[in-house]
Amino acid sequence: MLKSYLLISIIFVNVLCDCPGCFLGDGVPKENSPFINNTDNDKGNSYDGTNMALFEEEMDSNPMVSSLLNKLANYTNLTQGAQEHEEADDDEGPKKKAVKSPQMGTFMGVYLPCLQNILGVILFLRLTWIVGTAGILESLAIVCLCCSCTMLTAISMSAIATNGVVPAGGSYYMISRSLGPEFGGAVGLCFYLGTTFAGSMYILGTIEILLTYIVPKAAIFVAERKEDEVDALLNNMRVYGTCCLALMSVVVFVGVKYVNKLALVFLACVILSIFAIYAGVIKTIFEPPDFPVCMLGNRTLRNHNFDSCLKTVVIDNVTVTTKLWKLFCDGPELNATCNDYFVQNNVTEVQGIPGLASGVISENLWSEYGPLGMLVENKKLLSLGEGDSAQDIYMPYVVNDITTFFTLLVGIYFPSVTGIMAGSNRSGDLRDAQKSIPIGTILAIATTSFICTLSWPSPWVIVIGSFFSCCGAGLQSLTGAPRLLQAIARDGIVPFLQVFGHGKANGEPTWALLLTAGICEIGILIASLDAVAPILSMFFLMCYLFVNLACAVQTLLRTPNWRPRFKYYHWALSFLGMSLCLALMFICSWYYAIVAMAIATCIYKYIEYRGAEKEWGDGIRGLSLNAARYALIRLEEAPPHTKNWRPQLLVLLNVDSDQGVKHPRLLSLTTQLKAGKGLTIAGNVLEGTYLTRDAEAKKAEQNIKSAMSAERTKGFCHVVVSSNLRDGVSHLIQSAGLGGMKHNTVLMAWPGNWRQSNDQQSWKNFIETVRETTATHHALLVAKNVDSFPTNQERLVEGTIDVWWVVHDGGMLMLLPFLLRQHKVWRKCKMRIFTVAQMDDNSIQMKKDLQVFLYHLRLDAEVEVVEMHDNDISAFTYEKTLVMEQRSQMLKQMQLSRTEREREIQSITDESRSSIRRKNQGAAQSTNLSRQSSTVENTHEDEVAQLIHDRNTASHAAINDKADAGPDRVHMTWTKDKLFTERNRNREYNANVAVRDMFNMKPNQSNVRRMHTAVKMNEVVVNKSQGAHLVLLNMPGPPRNRGGDENYMEFLEVLLEGLNRVLLVRGGGREVITIYS
C-alpha cells in the first residue's frame, strides 16, 4: 500500500515538474542545472522501494544520489538552438530525431578559429608597413605589448572557462556570470559589435588584396587623376565588399560545418604562406630576390603607368622619351618643360628586398614617422634641389597616406591579435569547452606571436596568404558574432533583443545572422580599413579588460564556487592584464576610448533600468557584500557625528486584508524626505504565526516592494509575523537594520479612526510605539491625514512649510523642512518658523536670537514669535474635558455594540452640557466604580453557573451598599436561558448606576490644564498656518500613567483639529543639526 502511494505521488510530481524552466519554492526561475533543484523526467526513478523510507518526504525536492550522479555523467552542453530543435522534432511525430551533442574538439573548435583570426588582414597588409614606419625595435615593442595583453587575458579566460560548464556565449557568458548581467550585457554587446566590425575589416582586406594585387583590372571605378584614386578604390571596395558579404552570409547560413570545412582549406594556404616566409628569409641570406624599386633622386616612385625606370631610351640610335618622362613633363619631346626636381636628379633602381646580409636590419632599427603627404625617401641616395611641394602631390611619388605615430600604429596592429576569443565564442559547439578553450587559445597565441616576430615581406606570400586568411577570418567572424548575440538574447537581459534568440530548427541563429550582416554592411560602407581597425581595438580591449577583472575579483573574493581546473593563474597577472588593456585603450586613441566607454555605460544603465532581473551569483554581488561588511564594521566603531546625521527611516506600514499597502503616501513622503540618501526600511507586522501565515507574509513583502518601486523609494522591506501586533512592532523597532546601518527615526501614520474602532488595541499600540521610540532614543514622525500628502509627481508652488518650535528636540524641526525642500515637490515652498513666548519672555529678543541662530545654521526662513497669555480656562475647555472623561469611564463600564455605544455617548453629552449650566458649585464626590464586568460568553449549554452568580452578587454590593445584593450563595444549578436573563439584568442595572453617577463627575484638574493648552495652541496654529502646505509641530509625550492613554489621544486630536497636513515630530534625545562646519 505504501509503495503504491509513493509511486502515485512520484508520477504526480513528474507531471507537475516536466518543464525545463520550473520555478522553485521562492518563485524565482533558475538556470537549467543537473543538480538538486532540477526536475527532469528521470525523477520518477529516484525512489522506488522501502529501503529509504526515512527520506521519502524529501524525494520531491532532493533526488537520490544515484539519480544525481547519472544526470551529471550524462550531462552535455547542447548546441545553441537545441530547444528549438527539440520543439521542431516534437512536431514531426514519428520522424523525431535525437539532438546531437557538440562534437568539436580543441583543434577544430578553438585552435584553428583563433589562428585564422590572428593571422588575418593586419599581419599581411599592415605589418610590413608598420615595421617600415616604426622600425624594428618599436615594431617588436608593439607586437610584444599586444601579445602580452592577449596572453594575460587568455590566462584569465582559461581560469574562468575551466570553473564550470561554459554553455553558448563564450566570453559573454563568462563575463556575465562573473560580473553580473549589467556588466556582462554591456561588454557582451560591445564585443558583439567589435566582432561584427571585425568581419567588415576582414572583408575589406580581402577586396583590397583582390583589387590591388590579384586582379587590378577588375576595378569598376577607375580614377582619371591621381588625387581621385583613393575615392575610386573606396567605391570599388564598397561594391565588391557588399557582394562578398552576401556570399559569406549564405555560406554561414547553410551551416557552421561548411565554414569549418572551408576553414581547413584557407588555413592550409595560410600555413604554407607562413612557411614560405621563413624560407624566403633564409633564402635572402644567400640569394636576395630581384625586386627593383625605382628612385628619382632619393624619392621613391610608384610603379604605375610606366614600364621602365628610365628617362629616355635609345631605339635604333634615336633617343626617345619613356612613359616616366611623360609623367613629369608636359610632352614627349626632349625639349619639353619638365619638373625641376626631375631635371636635376637621376633615376636609379634599388633592390626592395636586399637580403639579411646587406645590413638592412641595422638600417631599419629606428622609426621614421611623418605627417600626411610626406615623401618616402632613402637618405643614403643623393638628392639635388627641393622641388615644388605644391606640384609634388600630382607626381607619382610614394607618400604617407596618413599621419603616422606610435600610438596610431598600436591601434592599427592590435586587431591582428584579437582572435583569441574566436574559439570561446563558439563554446556551444565544443565537446569539452573547459578543456578546449584554454589549450587552443594559448597555443594559438604562442604560435602567432612567434610568427609575427619573424615574418618579413615577400610579395607572393602576401598575396596568397593574406587573401585566403582574410576570407577565412571573415567567415569566422560572421559565424561567431551571431552566436554571441543569440546567447545575449536568450538570457533576456535586453528585452528588445529577444527576437534574435530564435533560429532554425538545428539551432543556427538566423535572425542574429541577418542583423550581423546589416551591421557588417555599415563597416563595409566606411570602406577604410585603417579607419575601422582602431574602433575594433576599443571594443576588444574593453572586453579583455573585463575578462581580467572578472578573474581578479573571483580570485580575491575566494568564493566557494571558484575552483578552476586551470591552475596557472594569479590575481596579480589579471590586474596586470587589466591595467595593460586600459593603458592600450588610451594609447591607441583616447577619444575612441571615451566613446567606447560611453556606449558601454549607456548599455549598462539600460540593462539596469529595463533589463530582466537576473541572479547568477556574480562576483560584483560578492564584492558588494564584502564592501558592505567592511563598511558596517567601520560604522560600528563610533556613533555618527552630528554633521553626518540624517534620518534613517523605519516606515511602519499597514496592509489590508489582501496584503495591499494602506497608505502609500507614507512612502511618497519618505522619498521626498530622503531623496534617495540614507537608509529606509519599510516594515509591517502580521498577527499570527509564521508557519500559518508565511504565504501572506511573502505576498505582503512583494506588495510593499511594488509600492516602494512605484513611489521610487529606495530601501529594504521587512515583514514580521508575531503573536500580537504590539510585540511585532517592538521587535521591528529593536532589531531592524544591521550594525551601524540601523534606523534612527520611525515614521508612521496617525490612527485616524481610533474613535470609531471597535478594537481599543489600535490606539493603545500607537501610544506604546511612542513610548518605545522614546525609550530606544529614536526620533518619531507621525503624519496626520497622510493620504492628502502630495505625490512625487505634484509640484507645490507659492506655499509655506510652517514649523512650530515649542520645545527643543535636538534640531529635528529645523532639519526636516530643509531636507524636504531639496526635493522638487517642495522646492518652491518657503519655510516659516514660529515659536511661542510666555508672559515672562521678551518676544522681541527671542525673535532676534532665533534669526541669528538660523543664520548660523545656514537656513533661510521667516521667523515669527507668537505670544500666548495666561487666560482663564474657558467653559468650553472645562466642558470638553468633562465629556472626554465621561466617555472614557463609560467605555470602560459598558460592553455595548458600536451602534449602542454611539447613541449612549450622544445622550450623555447632551445631558452633561445642560447639567454644567445648572451647577453653581462642585458636585458631590462620585462613587467609586468597579472595573469588573460580569460577562459570560460562549458558555456550554449545561455548564454550572454558581461561580458566575457569586461574582455578580459581589459586584452589586460594591456598587451600592443599599442595593439588594441577594443571597450570598445560591445552591442551585441554572439553565442557559435563565443564566442569560440574569446576566442582562445585571448589566442593565450596572449601566444605569454608572450613567446616573456620570452627571455628578468633576473633571480632573490636570486634564483640564492639558486640554486648555491643546485648545489654545490649536487656536494659534490654525490662525497662522491653516493655509500652509505642511505644518510641523512638536509632539507631546504620552503620560507616564497608562490610565490616561485615551485622554492623551483626545489631547492630540484637539491640538491638530482643523489642520490638513501635519507632521508631528518627536526628537530622539540627541542633537541632529549644528552651526559648525
UniProtKB/TrEMBL annotation:
- SLC12A transporter C-terminal domain residues are 664-783, 793-927, 999-1077
Q: Which UniProt keywords apply?
A: Cell membrane, Chloride, Glycoprotein, Ion transport, Membrane, Phosphoprotein, Potassium, Potassium transport, Signal, Symport, Transmembrane, Transmembrane helix, Transport
For bias type Basic and acidic residues, the affected ranges are: 898-914
Q: Which InterPro entries does the protein's record reference?
A: AA-permease/SLC12A_dom, KCL_cotranspt, SLC12_C, SLC12A_fam
Q: Which residues form the signal peptide?
A: 1-17
Indicate where this protein resides in the cell.
Cell membrane
Region of interest called Disordered, as start-end residue ranges on this chain: 894-939
According to its UniProt entry, one GO biological process term is: cell volume homeostasis
Q: Which Gene3D superfamilies match?
A: Amino acid/polyamine transporter I
Residue spans crossing the bilayer: 105-127, 139-162, 183-204, 237-256, 263-286, 402-424, 436-456, 535-557, 569-593
Compositional bias segments (type: Polar residues): 922-937
Q: What is its main location?
A: membrane
Q: Which GO terms describe its cellular component?
A: plasma membrane; synapse
Homology family: Belongs to the SLC12A transporter family. K/Cl co-transporter subfamily.
Protein's name in the database: Solute carrier family 12 member 7
Q: Which organism is it from?
A: Sander lucioperca (Pike-perch)
The lineage is: Eukaryota, Metazoa, Chordata, Craniata, Vertebrata
